[in-house]
Inverse folding.
C-alpha cells in the first residue's frame, strides 16, 4: 500500500484531468478482469495503484472546477464535467474491487472465471530486459498489430503510466509493457520483451 | 421512472445472473457515452432502465448466494462472486450517472464531449418498422459486419433485452436494435431498420 499524500492543488487543464481519468478507468477494467482470470497479483497491484492515481486526479479536477466556477451559471455548466469525472472514479473503484479479490486471496470463484473467459484476448505485462530486441525501439518499428496481433495498451515507466502510447514512443529498457492480444502471440511477445527470445517470428 | 417492485427470490443460477450483470454493465457504458456524446435522451433512458435491471439482478444474486452458503467455508468461497457482482453494479451506477447528465438536462460539457469523441464508432438505436427489409430476418442473413461495418450489440424486445444476439436470432417487427458502427453506415442502417430505405447498398 503506497503512503497517501495530501493532494495539493496545481494548475492542470480540466480536459487533461478528465481524459486521463477516463482512459485509466477503462484500462483498469481490462487489467482487473485479466488479473482475476489468471490470478495475476502483479496486474491486480497495478490496478490498486492506478485507483489511487484516479482518486488524486479526481480531487484535482474537483478543485479546478471549484476555482473555475465564478457564479451560479458557471457552476451549472461545470456540474456536467464533475459528474462525468465522478463516474470514471466509480468505474475505477469497481476495477479495484475486482483486483482486491486477487490481492486479498479471496479467491476468484469458478463462475467469475467462466464469465470473464468470454474475453478472448489476454492482457499481459512484461518488463523490458536491456537485451530484448524491443528495447530502444519505437512502437511502430515493431509492427506488432500486423505481425503478432498484439497491442501495447500502456507503458509503465517508473512512476509514470503512458496510456495508449503513440506510434513514435520509444520503448526503454526497464519499461513495463501492458499488452492485449491472442494467447499464443502474447506469450511469444512476453518472451521477446523479457529477452528470452531473440527474434520475432514472421 | 418505472415503478419499483419488491424483488422476490426466484431460483436462477448464479452464473446466469452474474453473466447478465457483466454484459449489461458493459453495454451500459457504451450506451451512456453515446447518449452523452449525441445528447440522445432515448439512449440515456435505456441506460436508466437497465440500471434498475442490474440492481434487481444484484439483489437476486445476493439472495441466491446467501441461500447457497451453508457454512463459513461456503461463505468464504462465495464472497468472490458477490464482490465481482457488486463491481458490475458499480459500473452500471457510473453509466447511469453519465446518462443522468442527459436526462436531467444538466448539459454535457464540451470537455466531456471532446473526450468521448475519441470513440470513433457510434452507438445507435432504431425501431424495426414492419415494412423494413430487416424485419423477420435472421441476424446472419443481413451480413451486417461484412457489408456495412455495423454490429447489432443488443435487441430490446418489449421488456426483454437480448445482449450480443446470436447469429440465428430472428429480428421481429417492433424490436429496437442497438448497433455500433461507423457514422455513415450507422445512418444508412437506421434508415433501413425504420423502413425509410428499401435496399442495402453493397
Amino acid at each position: 500500500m503506497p503512503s497517501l499524500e495530501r493532494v495539493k492543488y496545481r494548475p492542470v487543464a480540466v480536459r487533461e484531468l478528465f481524459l486521463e481519468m477516463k482512459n485509466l478507468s477503462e484500462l483498469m477494467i481490462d487489467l482487473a478482469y485479466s488479473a482475476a482470470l489468471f490470478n495475476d497479483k502483479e496486474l491486480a497491484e497495478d490496478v490498486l495503484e492506478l485507483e489511487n492515481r484516479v482518486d488524486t486526479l479526481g480531487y484535482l479536477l474537483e478543485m479546478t472546477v471549484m476555482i473555475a466556477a465564478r457564479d451560479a451559471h458557471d457552476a451549472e455548466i461545470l456540474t456536467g464535467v464533475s459528474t462525468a469525472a465522478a463516474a470514471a472514479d466509480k468505474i475505477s473503484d469497481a476495477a479495484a474491487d475486482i483486483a482486491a479479490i486477487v490481492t486479498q486471496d479471496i479467491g476468484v470463484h469458478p463462475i467469475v472465471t467462466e464469465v470473464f473467459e468470454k474475453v478472448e484476448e489476454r492482457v499481459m505485462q512484461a518488463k523490458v530486459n536491456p537485451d530484448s530486441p524491443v528495447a530502444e525501439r519505437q512502437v511502430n518499428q515493431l509492427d506488432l498489430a500486423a505481425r503478432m496481433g498484439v497491442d501495447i495498451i500502456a507503458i509503465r515507466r517508473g512512476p509514470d503510466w503512458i496510456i495508449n502510447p503513440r506510434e513514435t514512443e520509444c520503448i526503454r529498457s526497464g519499461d513495463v509493457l501492458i499488452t492485449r492480444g491472442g494467447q499464443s502471440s502474447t506469450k511469444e511477445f512476453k518472451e521477446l520483451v523479457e529477452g528470452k527470445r531473440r527474434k520475432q517470428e514472421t
The mean pLDDT of chain A is 87.
